[in-house]
Amino acid sequence: MDVKSNHIDPLLTDPAPLSKSSLRVPSGLLQYSRAAFSPSLFLTVSRMEAGIIDICTSSCLDSMESSSPPHKVSRDFNNDLVSADTNVAYHTWLLKYPSALASFEQITNFAEGKRIALFLDYDGTLSPIVDDPDCAFMSNDMRATLKNVATCFPTAIISGRSRDKVYEFVGLTELNYAGSHGMDIMSAVRQSSDDYSNYIQSTDKQGKEVDLFQPASEFLPMIDEVFNSLVNSTEDIHGAKVENNKFCLSVHYRNVDEKDWATVAQRVHDVIRNYHRLRLTHGRKVLEVRPVIDWDKGKAVTYLLESLGLGNCDDVLPIYVGDDQTDEDAFKVLREGNRGYGILVSSVPKESNAFFSLKDPQEVMEFLTSLVVWKKKSET
Ligand SMILES: O=P(O)(O)OC[C@H]1O[C@H](O[C@H]2O[C@H](CO)[C@@H](O)[C@H](O)[C@H]2O)[C@H](O)[C@@H](O)[C@@H]1O
Asked: Does ipTM top 0.90?
Protein backbone atom coordinates (compact mmCIF):
# COMPACT_ATOMS: atom_id res chain seq x y z
CA MET A 1 0.00 0.00 0.00
CA ASP A 2 1.41 3.35 -0.96
CA VAL A 3 0.70 5.52 2.02
CA LYS A 4 2.01 8.62 0.33
CA SER A 5 -0.87 8.50 -2.10
CA ASN A 6 -3.41 8.97 0.65
CA HIS A 7 -1.30 10.17 3.51
CA ILE A 8 1.30 12.75 4.34
CA ASP A 9 4.86 11.53 4.71
CA PRO A 10 5.78 12.55 8.25
CA LEU A 11 9.38 13.04 7.45
CA LEU A 12 9.04 15.18 4.38
CA THR A 13 6.12 17.54 4.76
CA ASP A 14 4.10 19.35 7.37
CA PRO A 15 0.86 17.63 8.26
CA ALA A 16 -2.42 19.05 7.07
CA PRO A 17 -4.51 20.52 9.88
CA LEU A 18 -6.63 17.91 11.59
CA SER A 19 -10.19 18.20 10.53
CA LYS A 20 -13.25 16.44 11.78
CA SER A 21 -15.14 16.83 8.53
CA SER A 22 -12.44 15.08 6.53
CA LEU A 23 -13.34 11.88 8.31
CA ARG A 24 -16.93 11.86 7.11
CA VAL A 25 -17.87 9.73 10.08
CA PRO A 26 -21.58 8.89 10.26
CA SER A 27 -23.15 11.10 12.89
CA GLY A 28 -24.01 8.15 15.10
CA LEU A 29 -20.31 7.56 15.68
CA LEU A 30 -19.41 11.13 16.46
CA GLN A 31 -21.01 11.00 19.86
CA TYR A 32 -18.30 8.74 21.21
CA SER A 33 -15.42 10.14 19.23
CA ARG A 34 -16.11 13.66 20.50
CA ALA A 35 -13.74 13.40 23.46
CA ALA A 36 -10.89 12.43 21.21
CA PHE A 37 -11.59 15.38 18.95
CA SER A 38 -11.66 17.85 21.78
CA PRO A 39 -8.45 19.15 23.34
CA SER A 40 -7.40 17.83 26.74
CA LEU A 41 -9.93 18.67 29.34
CA PHE A 42 -8.58 21.04 31.91
CA LEU A 43 -10.82 21.90 34.82
CA THR A 44 -10.04 25.27 36.29
CA VAL A 45 -11.49 24.02 39.50
CA SER A 46 -9.88 26.49 41.84
CA ARG A 47 -11.63 29.37 40.17
CA MET A 48 -15.12 27.90 40.28
CA GLU A 49 -17.80 28.39 42.86
CA ALA A 50 -19.20 25.19 44.32
CA GLY A 51 -22.55 24.14 42.90
CA ILE A 52 -24.47 20.93 42.69
CA ILE A 53 -23.02 20.33 39.24
CA ASP A 54 -21.21 23.52 38.25
CA ILE A 55 -20.03 24.38 34.79
CA CYS A 56 -16.65 22.62 35.18
CA THR A 57 -18.16 19.47 36.54
CA SER A 58 -20.76 19.45 33.83
CA SER A 59 -18.12 19.87 31.12
CA CYS A 60 -16.23 17.04 32.79
CA LEU A 61 -19.38 14.94 32.80
CA ASP A 62 -19.97 15.76 29.16
CA SER A 63 -16.49 14.47 28.35
CA MET A 64 -17.03 11.37 30.50
CA GLU A 65 -20.20 10.57 28.58
CA SER A 66 -18.89 11.36 25.13
CA SER A 67 -15.82 9.17 25.61
CA SER A 68 -18.04 6.15 26.20
CA PRO A 69 -19.28 4.47 23.05
CA PRO A 70 -22.90 3.40 23.07
CA HIS A 71 -22.86 -0.18 24.34
CA LYS A 72 -24.32 -1.53 21.13
CA VAL A 73 -21.46 -0.16 19.02
CA SER A 74 -18.65 -1.45 21.25
CA ARG A 75 -20.35 -4.81 21.62
CA ASP A 76 -20.71 -4.99 17.87
CA PHE A 77 -16.99 -4.33 17.42
CA ASN A 78 -16.01 -6.97 19.92
CA ASN A 79 -18.35 -9.54 18.45
CA ASP A 80 -17.56 -8.68 14.85
CA LEU A 81 -21.24 -8.00 14.22
CA VAL A 82 -20.37 -4.65 12.76
CA SER A 83 -23.13 -2.49 11.37
CA ALA A 84 -22.77 -1.13 7.84
CA ASP A 85 -22.36 2.44 9.14
CA THR A 86 -19.66 1.45 11.58
CA ASN A 87 -17.79 -0.47 8.95
CA VAL A 88 -17.90 2.40 6.48
CA ALA A 89 -16.72 4.87 9.14
CA TYR A 90 -13.83 2.66 10.20
CA HIS A 91 -12.70 2.00 6.63
CA THR A 92 -13.00 5.67 5.72
CA TRP A 93 -10.91 6.49 8.77
CA LEU A 94 -8.30 3.90 7.72
CA LEU A 95 -7.65 5.96 4.60
CA LYS A 96 -6.36 8.71 6.84
CA TYR A 97 -4.68 6.46 9.41
CA PRO A 98 -3.63 3.37 7.42
CA SER A 99 -2.96 0.13 9.20
CA ALA A 100 0.71 -0.15 10.19
CA LEU A 101 0.47 -3.83 9.24
CA ALA A 102 -0.84 -3.10 5.74
CA SER A 103 1.78 -0.33 5.44
CA PHE A 104 4.59 -2.44 6.86
CA GLU A 105 6.63 -2.45 3.66
CA GLN A 106 6.43 1.31 3.39
CA ILE A 107 7.54 1.70 7.01
CA THR A 108 10.49 -0.68 6.64
CA ASN A 109 11.49 0.83 3.31
CA PHE A 110 11.78 4.12 5.07
CA ALA A 111 13.61 2.51 7.99
CA GLU A 112 16.25 1.02 5.69
CA GLY A 113 19.68 2.17 6.94
CA LYS A 114 18.13 3.80 10.01
CA ARG A 115 18.10 2.80 13.65
CA ILE A 116 14.56 2.24 14.88
CA ALA A 117 13.79 3.27 18.49
CA LEU A 118 10.52 1.96 19.90
CA PHE A 119 8.29 3.71 22.40
CA LEU A 120 5.26 1.88 23.70
CA ASP A 121 2.33 2.83 25.88
CA TYR A 122 1.08 0.10 28.24
CA ASP A 123 -2.70 0.00 28.88
CA GLY A 124 -4.72 -0.54 25.73
CA THR A 125 -1.50 -1.00 23.72
CA LEU A 126 0.40 -3.91 25.25
CA SER A 127 -2.49 -5.15 27.39
CA PRO A 128 -6.19 -5.08 26.58
CA ILE A 129 -8.43 -2.66 28.48
CA VAL A 130 -10.10 -4.53 31.35
CA ASP A 131 -12.53 -3.50 34.09
CA ASP A 132 -10.09 -3.89 36.98
CA PRO A 133 -6.96 -1.73 36.55
CA ASP A 134 -5.05 -4.06 38.87
CA CYS A 135 -5.67 -6.95 36.49
CA ALA A 136 -4.41 -5.40 33.25
CA PHE A 137 -1.97 -8.26 32.71
CA MET A 138 0.09 -8.62 29.60
CA SER A 139 -0.03 -11.99 27.86
CA ASN A 140 3.04 -14.23 27.92
CA ASP A 141 3.12 -14.03 24.13
CA MET A 142 3.30 -10.25 24.31
CA ARG A 143 6.07 -10.50 26.93
CA ALA A 144 8.08 -12.84 24.70
CA THR A 145 7.54 -10.50 21.75
CA LEU A 146 8.72 -7.51 23.77
CA LYS A 147 11.82 -9.39 24.87
CA ASN A 148 12.66 -10.11 21.23
CA VAL A 149 11.95 -6.54 20.20
CA ALA A 150 14.26 -5.21 22.91
CA THR A 151 17.14 -7.33 21.59
CA CYS A 152 16.74 -5.72 18.16
CA PHE A 153 15.84 -2.10 18.99
CA PRO A 154 16.22 0.32 21.90
CA THR A 155 12.77 0.07 23.50
CA ALA A 156 10.98 2.05 26.20
CA ILE A 157 7.55 1.86 27.78
CA ILE A 158 5.96 5.20 28.63
CA SER A 159 2.90 4.75 30.81
CA GLY A 160 0.48 6.74 32.94
CA ARG A 161 0.95 4.08 35.62
CA SER A 162 3.60 4.34 38.32
CA ARG A 163 6.93 3.09 37.00
CA ASP A 164 7.02 0.30 39.59
CA LYS A 165 3.54 -0.89 38.63
CA VAL A 166 4.26 -1.03 34.92
CA TYR A 167 7.54 -2.85 35.62
CA GLU A 168 5.60 -5.33 37.77
CA PHE A 169 3.25 -6.01 34.83
CA VAL A 170 5.98 -6.26 32.18
CA GLY A 171 8.80 -7.81 34.21
CA LEU A 172 11.56 -7.38 31.63
CA THR A 173 14.91 -5.84 32.51
CA GLU A 174 15.79 -5.31 28.85
CA LEU A 175 13.55 -2.23 28.50
CA ASN A 176 13.58 1.36 29.68
CA TYR A 177 10.60 2.46 31.77
CA ALA A 178 8.90 5.82 32.18
CA GLY A 179 5.96 6.02 34.59
CA SER A 180 3.49 8.75 35.61
CA HIS A 181 3.01 9.91 31.99
CA GLY A 182 6.76 10.38 31.59
CA MET A 183 7.29 12.19 34.92
CA ASP A 184 9.36 9.29 36.28
CA ILE A 185 12.04 8.02 33.90
CA MET A 186 14.67 5.41 34.67
CA SER A 187 17.22 5.03 31.91
CA ALA A 188 20.80 4.09 31.25
CA VAL A 189 23.44 6.50 32.54
CA ARG A 190 23.59 9.42 30.13
CA GLN A 191 26.74 9.72 28.05
CA SER A 192 26.34 13.33 26.99
CA SER A 193 26.00 16.48 29.02
CA ASP A 194 22.84 18.27 27.88
CA ASP A 195 19.93 20.47 28.94
CA TYR A 196 18.57 18.11 31.55
CA SER A 197 20.25 19.03 34.79
CA ASN A 198 17.83 17.61 37.31
CA TYR A 199 18.34 13.90 36.97
CA ILE A 200 19.96 11.89 39.70
CA GLN A 201 22.09 8.78 39.62
CA SER A 202 20.52 5.74 41.16
CA THR A 203 20.55 1.96 40.90
CA ASP A 204 17.86 -0.28 39.44
CA LYS A 205 16.45 -3.46 40.99
CA GLN A 206 19.46 -5.43 39.72
CA GLY A 207 21.90 -2.96 41.26
CA LYS A 208 22.90 -1.50 37.89
CA GLU A 209 23.70 2.21 37.78
CA VAL A 210 20.94 4.25 36.13
CA ASP A 211 19.73 7.82 35.76
CA LEU A 212 16.48 8.83 37.38
CA PHE A 213 14.60 11.83 36.01
CA GLN A 214 11.64 13.02 38.09
CA PRO A 215 10.67 16.56 37.08
CA ALA A 216 7.63 16.61 39.42
CA SER A 217 9.36 15.33 42.56
CA GLU A 218 8.35 18.38 44.60
CA PHE A 219 4.70 17.38 44.09
CA LEU A 220 5.02 14.04 45.90
CA PRO A 221 3.62 15.18 49.30
CA MET A 222 0.76 17.00 47.56
CA ILE A 223 -0.11 14.00 45.40
CA ASP A 224 -0.17 11.73 48.46
CA GLU A 225 -2.40 14.17 50.33
CA VAL A 226 -4.83 14.45 47.40
CA PHE A 227 -4.81 10.66 46.96
CA ASN A 228 -6.01 10.20 50.56
CA SER A 229 -8.68 12.89 50.13
CA LEU A 230 -9.93 11.34 46.89
CA VAL A 231 -10.08 7.87 48.42
CA ASN A 232 -12.13 9.23 51.33
CA SER A 233 -14.44 11.32 49.21
CA THR A 234 -15.26 8.58 46.71
CA GLU A 235 -15.44 5.59 49.04
CA ASP A 236 -19.25 5.57 49.06
CA ILE A 237 -19.49 5.58 45.24
CA HIS A 238 -19.91 1.99 44.19
CA GLY A 239 -17.26 1.04 41.58
CA ALA A 240 -15.13 4.18 41.91
CA LYS A 241 -11.42 3.52 42.37
CA VAL A 242 -8.51 5.86 42.97
CA GLU A 243 -5.09 4.72 41.79
CA ASN A 244 -1.86 6.27 43.03
CA ASN A 245 0.53 6.53 40.08
CA LYS A 246 3.20 8.27 42.19
CA PHE A 247 3.38 11.66 40.41
CA CYS A 248 -0.24 11.60 39.24
CA LEU A 249 -3.51 10.00 40.25
CA SER A 250 -6.27 8.19 38.39
CA VAL A 251 -9.91 8.23 39.44
CA HIS A 252 -11.54 5.33 37.62
CA TYR A 253 -15.27 5.35 36.86
CA ARG A 254 -15.42 2.40 34.42
CA ASN A 255 -17.29 0.35 37.03
CA VAL A 256 -19.48 3.19 38.30
CA ASP A 257 -23.13 3.27 37.26
CA GLU A 258 -23.55 6.02 34.66
CA LYS A 259 -26.12 7.77 36.83
CA ASP A 260 -23.34 8.36 39.42
CA TRP A 261 -20.74 9.79 37.03
CA ALA A 262 -21.80 13.33 37.89
CA THR A 263 -21.15 12.56 41.54
CA VAL A 264 -17.66 11.27 40.71
CA ALA A 265 -16.89 14.43 38.73
CA GLN A 266 -18.25 16.64 41.50
CA ARG A 267 -16.28 14.90 44.26
CA VAL A 268 -13.03 15.09 42.30
CA HIS A 269 -13.70 18.71 41.56
CA ASP A 270 -14.38 19.43 45.23
CA VAL A 271 -11.10 17.86 46.31
CA ILE A 272 -8.77 19.50 43.83
CA ARG A 273 -10.47 22.91 43.73
CA ASN A 274 -7.93 24.35 46.17
CA TYR A 275 -4.87 22.86 44.55
CA HIS A 276 -3.95 25.47 41.96
CA ARG A 277 -0.89 23.52 40.89
CA LEU A 278 -2.83 20.43 39.90
CA ARG A 279 -4.88 19.90 36.76
CA LEU A 280 -7.42 17.37 35.65
CA THR A 281 -7.30 15.54 32.33
CA HIS A 282 -9.45 12.83 30.86
CA GLY A 283 -8.48 9.32 29.77
CA ARG A 284 -10.36 6.11 29.04
CA LYS A 285 -13.08 6.14 31.71
CA VAL A 286 -10.62 7.76 34.05
CA LEU A 287 -10.08 11.27 35.43
CA GLU A 288 -6.40 11.99 35.90
CA VAL A 289 -5.00 14.46 38.42
CA ARG A 290 -1.59 15.76 37.37
CA PRO A 291 0.89 18.46 38.42
CA VAL A 292 0.89 21.58 36.29
CA ILE A 293 4.38 21.25 34.82
CA ASP A 294 5.67 21.59 31.29
CA TRP A 295 6.19 17.88 30.82
CA ASP A 296 4.34 15.14 28.97
CA LYS A 297 4.88 11.91 27.05
CA GLY A 298 6.23 13.88 24.07
CA LYS A 299 8.95 15.47 26.18
CA ALA A 300 9.68 12.06 27.69
CA VAL A 301 10.32 10.67 24.18
CA THR A 302 12.80 13.46 23.46
CA TYR A 303 14.49 12.92 26.82
CA LEU A 304 14.74 9.16 26.29
CA LEU A 305 16.12 9.54 22.77
CA GLU A 306 18.91 11.68 24.19
CA SER A 307 19.48 9.25 27.06
CA LEU A 308 19.81 6.43 24.58
CA GLY A 309 22.35 8.43 22.60
CA LEU A 310 19.89 8.78 19.72
CA GLY A 311 18.95 12.46 20.03
CA ASN A 312 19.37 14.72 16.98
CA CYS A 313 20.52 11.84 14.78
CA ASP A 314 19.29 11.81 11.18
CA ASP A 315 19.61 8.06 11.00
CA VAL A 316 17.19 7.36 13.86
CA LEU A 317 13.55 6.49 13.27
CA PRO A 318 11.48 6.66 16.45
CA ILE A 319 8.17 4.78 16.39
CA TYR A 320 5.62 5.44 19.15
CA VAL A 321 2.62 3.15 19.64
CA GLY A 322 -0.22 4.24 21.95
CA ASP A 323 -3.98 4.38 22.37
CA ASP A 324 -4.73 7.24 24.72
CA GLN A 325 -5.17 11.01 24.69
CA THR A 326 -1.86 11.41 26.56
CA ASP A 327 -0.06 9.58 23.73
CA GLU A 328 -1.05 12.40 21.38
CA ASP A 329 1.73 14.55 22.88
CA ALA A 330 4.27 11.97 21.72
CA PHE A 331 2.64 11.60 18.28
CA LYS A 332 2.79 15.37 17.96
CA VAL A 333 6.51 15.57 18.79
CA LEU A 334 7.28 12.96 16.12
CA ARG A 335 4.95 14.55 13.56
CA GLU A 336 6.01 18.16 14.12
CA GLY A 337 9.69 17.37 14.14
CA ASN A 338 9.26 15.18 11.03
CA ARG A 339 11.10 12.67 13.12
CA GLY A 340 9.19 9.43 13.06
CA TYR A 341 5.93 7.56 13.09
CA GLY A 342 3.12 7.64 15.62
CA ILE A 343 0.83 4.62 15.54
CA LEU A 344 -2.59 4.95 17.17
CA VAL A 345 -4.17 1.82 18.63
CA SER A 346 -7.90 2.12 18.10
CA SER A 347 -10.77 0.08 16.74
CA VAL A 348 -12.97 3.15 16.38
CA PRO A 349 -12.40 6.34 14.36
CA LYS A 350 -10.54 9.00 16.37
CA GLU A 351 -8.82 12.17 15.26
CA SER A 352 -5.10 11.85 16.01
CA ASN A 353 -1.59 13.15 15.40
CA ALA A 354 -0.50 9.62 14.61
CA PHE A 355 0.30 8.53 11.04
CA PHE A 356 -0.76 4.91 11.19
CA SER A 357 -3.12 2.78 13.19
CA LEU A 358 -3.45 -0.68 14.66
CA LYS A 359 -6.74 -2.09 15.86
CA ASP A 360 -5.83 -3.62 19.23
CA PRO A 361 -2.96 -5.11 21.30
CA GLN A 362 -3.11 -8.28 19.19
CA GLU A 363 -2.25 -6.24 16.09
CA VAL A 364 0.45 -4.41 18.09
CA MET A 365 2.03 -7.79 18.82
CA GLU A 366 1.87 -8.76 15.12
CA PHE A 367 3.49 -5.47 14.16
CA LEU A 368 6.30 -5.88 16.72
CA THR A 369 6.87 -9.47 15.62
CA SER A 370 7.12 -8.35 11.99
CA LEU A 371 9.68 -5.72 12.95
CA VAL A 372 11.84 -8.37 14.63
CA VAL A 373 11.61 -10.67 11.59
CA TRP A 374 12.46 -7.79 9.26
CA LYS A 375 15.44 -6.74 11.41
CA LYS A 376 16.83 -10.28 11.64
CA LYS A 377 16.42 -10.76 7.88
CA SER A 378 18.19 -7.50 7.15
CA GLU A 379 21.15 -8.63 9.25
CA THR A 380 21.72 -11.87 7.35
O1 LIG B 1 -0.47 5.47 29.67
P2 LIG B 1 -1.14 4.15 29.89
O3 LIG B 1 -0.17 3.04 30.15
O4 LIG B 1 -2.11 3.81 28.79
O5 LIG B 1 -2.00 4.34 31.23
C6 LIG B 1 -3.20 5.12 31.19
C7 LIG B 1 -4.10 4.66 32.31
O8 LIG B 1 -4.23 3.24 32.14
C9 LIG B 1 -4.91 2.50 33.15
O10 LIG B 1 -6.30 2.73 33.03
C11 LIG B 1 -6.85 2.25 31.82
O12 LIG B 1 -6.69 0.82 31.76
C13 LIG B 1 -7.39 0.07 32.80
C14 LIG B 1 -7.03 -1.40 32.64
O15 LIG B 1 -7.33 -1.87 31.37
C16 LIG B 1 -8.90 0.33 32.67
O17 LIG B 1 -9.61 -0.36 33.70
C18 LIG B 1 -9.15 1.85 32.79
O19 LIG B 1 -10.53 2.12 32.59
C20 LIG B 1 -8.33 2.62 31.74
O21 LIG B 1 -8.46 4.02 31.94
C22 LIG B 1 -4.39 2.85 34.51
O23 LIG B 1 -5.15 2.15 35.48
C24 LIG B 1 -4.36 4.34 34.76
O25 LIG B 1 -3.82 4.63 36.01
C26 LIG B 1 -3.50 4.97 33.67
O27 LIG B 1 -3.43 6.37 33.86
From this structure: yes
